[in-house]
Structure formats: structure tokens, C-alpha cells
Amino acid sequence: MGKNVLNTVSVFGVKMLDIPLLNKLQQYEIDFSKKRISPLFLDEYVEVVKELLNWYSSTVASILNNKRYKDSNLCDFVFKESCKSELDYNNAIKMHLFVSSEYAVFLTKTLNVSNVVSLREKIQFAIDDFESLLIEYACVFENKNGITPHGGRKGRFCLINMRDCMEKLFMLGHYQYSSNIINDMSFYSIFSIRQFIESWGKRIIGYEMIYDQNDQPIKKFTQIGWDFISEQVKKGNIKLPFNLDQLMHIYRWSNIFTHMTHLYAAYMQFYAITMVEKMFATSDGIPKKIYNNRLQTKACADVLIYNYNQVKQDLEDSLKEKNFGNSVKIVWTDVDKNEAAYIMTL
Q: Which pLDDT tens digit goes with each residue over 76-127?
């Protein structure tokens, strides 16, 4: 067990960490969202945020007894996909706390009245992450279970977020405040195009990760998706409302930039994004009756999957044939939470 430094409180029967400064900040957030903003308000808001960040840094320092970690140890644990032992997991929590407190110090030094509006969302995300780490510590080291966070964000980008990111990165260089740095950044929309296409295929099939016998993600686990979808289209198990060959032309083009950093003309990026968005939007807007007779509507292309259990089995068999081994493990999305396809029949 670790040091007992965190207290909990019951709010309308819900168990939460007792962080008065976070409650205070949330009151300011309400005014912020209602546009009740004045110079005095911004001064007070910055002060409250800095107080909370300083509290977090000092709390983490207390938890860790002011211990500092070497970069070699931090890289080993902070970027690990999974931990093989309870000791590794406990060490990982502490090192995540340490790195997060360093970021809290950075934010405290960076934040001021002139940049608080643009930094506000990053601050919110950071505070959500910091609270999640404290909850994890309280659960593992202080045996305080069932704690609910005050707020939070989703643990991953949904496809809509990724599509928006792809477009916004490209458009960075098209505004009046454009600079050389921002113009250079806009080329990285090609990375987002590639990531979006890969994630789209993965989420159509409905898997989160694919692990090998050592519990490590297999290479190219995101790229497997579209090759497999192509096979299933030929079998009649998957129906796409767009031309797959066109999408694959764009994917291969974006992949070349990833490895070669060739600066493609802006008009090519523009057309690639236009085409991907057009394919993603190929929906008739009519709710679909899925396998359980429920009507479902999605904010993306009308991809239909039939014989879903067979599709899943086919993917496992395909991976074995490609020498990934018999012990390959696929982490499937809950069938009712498939983000990118309608499961018509099981």
C-alpha cells in the first residue's frame, strides 16, 4: 500500500475525490461556457487553474516522497502497452504521476491571461487526465474503489473527431494568422488522412487491437483491415457504398508521404480530403434494422455487414494463414457499439 494522501467525498451518493479547487474551477467553467467573460474573470480563472495545477504537483510530490525518475526508467514504463506483473503496473502508475506533474508545472509556467482562451481545452483535458491518475492511485495503493471522476473525455478519438482533425490540419495554412510554421504543419494532414483510413477499416470490422503470443500488438494491425474488407466484399459479407479502389489509391498515396516525407502539392491534399470525406458521408440517412431488429442510425457511410460471426472467424483464420500464429488474440468491440458499420445479421 502507498501513502494515504487522497480523501473522498460523497456527492448525491456518488463517491468522488475530495478536490475543492476542482469544484471551484468547475463553477468558473460554467460561467466560461455561458460567455460571462471579462478581464477580471480571466484573471481569476487563470489564478484558480494555477492553484489547482500547483496542488496537483505538490500532491504527486507527496505521493512519491519527492522521488525523481531517470529518463531510461520513464521511457520503459510510461510508453508500455501493457504490464506483465503487479509490480510493473504499480511502478507505471507512479511514473505516469511523475511525468504528469512535470506537465502540470509546464502548464503553470505557460498559462497567462493572454493565452488562457486558446489553452482552455488543453487545460481541461490535462486536468481530466490528472484526476484519472489520482483515482487509479487511490484504487491501487489506498484501496479506495468505486470513485467516479468529476468529468472526463473519451479515451480515444471517434471517427468524426479524426475526420475533423484531418481537415483542420490541412486548413491551418489558409487563414489570416498563417505563418511559416503553420504552413509547414498543414502538410501533416497527410498523416491524419492515413490514420483516418486505417482506423476506419479497423472499426468497420469491429476490433480494437490484435496481440501476438507475447501480448504485443502485431505489426500493421491497423493496415490489415482494408485488405480483409476487400476479401469480405467479394464474399458478399460486407457491402460498401463507395468505391474501395479509389479509397486504396488515396491510402497508398498517404502512406508514401509517411515513409518518404515527399511534399505533395496542396491541391492533391485538398482532393484527397474531399474524396475521403465524400466516401465517409455516403449515407442515405435512413435508419437500418440491424441483427436484433432494432433501428440504428450512424453518422457515417452505410457499411453493411452480414454473417458477422463468420466474418470474425474469417479474420482469425486469415491471421493464422499469414503466420501470426495460433495464439493471436483479437480484442473485439461490443457488437452493439460498432462505430462504423451496421451489423445486419450474426
A: 888 776 788 899 999 999 999 999 999 999 999 999 999 888 888 888 888 9
In terms of C-beta density within 10 A (0-12 exposed, 13-18 middle, 19 or more buried), how is residue 167 classed?
Answer: middle
Say if CB 208 and CB 248 are below 8 A apart: no
* Least confident span in 34-48, 118-132, 225-239, 249-263: 249-263
Q: Hey, what's the cell of 274?
A: 474531399
Let me know: does 196 contact 226? Beta carbons within 8 Å.
Answer: no
Within 10 angstroms of residue 170's Cβ, the number of other Cβ atoms is 22
Name the grid cell of 82.
Answer: 501493457
The enclosing H or E element of 16 equals: strand 14-17
CA proximity to 150, closest of 130, 167, 122 = 130
Nearest to 309 by CA among 281, 341, 272, 346: 346
> How far apart, in Å, do the first and last CA atoms of the chain sit?
46
Beta bridge partners, 288, equal: 296
Q: Which of 22, 257, 7, 45 is nearest to 144 (CA)?
A: 7
Q: State the alpha helices, DSSP H only, in 172-288.
A: 180-186, 189-205, 224-235, 244-260, 266-280
For residue 157, the tally of other CB atoms under 10 A from its CB is: 14
The whole-angstrom separation of Cα 263 and Cα 135 is 44
pTM of the model: 0.70
